[in-house]
Amino acid sequence: MKYVVYLKQIRKKFDKQVVLREINLVVKKGEILGLIGPSGAGKSTVIKTMLGMEKADGGEAFILATTMPNRKILGRIGYMAQSDALYETLSAKANLEFFAKMKGISKEQLTNEITHVARIVDLSTSLNRRVSEYSGGMKRRLSLAIALLGSPELLILDEPTVGIDPALRKKIWQELGILRDAGTSILITTHVMSEAELTDRVALLLHGNIIADDSPQNLEKQYAVESIEEVFLKAEESEELR
Ligand SMILES: Nc1ncnc2c1ncn2[C@@H]1O[C@H](COP(=O)(O)OP(=O)(O)OP(=O)(O)O)[C@@H](O)[C@H]1O
Question: How far, in Å, are 102, 172, 232 from residue 168 at the CA level?
């Protein structure tokens, strides 16, 4: 299969609330796909159902040519959840060591790996501090560093830059670009429309469906506007009128 992620007619409801009507979505090798949509649209639910953390009510999900859910391939995926799952009483370094071991990173590689990911998120000088002393933004950065451990083939990042200041945000996007160019596939959700401009393709989730899916440039052309923010607003407007 040529797609790294292939979601086919995924449906999901919570009790009577239909969150995902029919999601068809792909992520190709070596691209950054931005999944955008208003708060509560179901972006996290798309991610959780594809990973098998929530059970889909219908449809199929394939990741790295494997039918999901499948625990065996989780080691090839770097997942950063929307809320940080960190060991607060341990140092950042101990957290990284723990997750590196879970990913099967060898003892010989451990120090290099931790130095590498800590540098990307600018935490090199705070690694020995306890996570409970970290700010919200530092915790997000640590979660991102954990997702980057082991150079996964697929990165799934749920709102990775919340609480991160503009300079570091820029640096992180540069790093994502480097990873993409090296062949990593990246699925990222964001509220920040200016970040959506930096992706290769934007999928717009609204009312349980993907209502637009194209490069930022093509979407701007299609909607005759100059930014993804305006695409988003126009798409929302025309959906309301339907
Ligand atoms: N476990 C759950 N049980 C019941 N309802 C849920 C559950 N998880 C999500 N929902 C509901 O599903 C909808 C979509 O939630 P989801 O977190 O996927 O949205 P989102 O697009 O990621 O939002 P945000 O951008 O605010 O994080 C919301 O209405 C939410 O309340």
Answer: 27, 6, 25
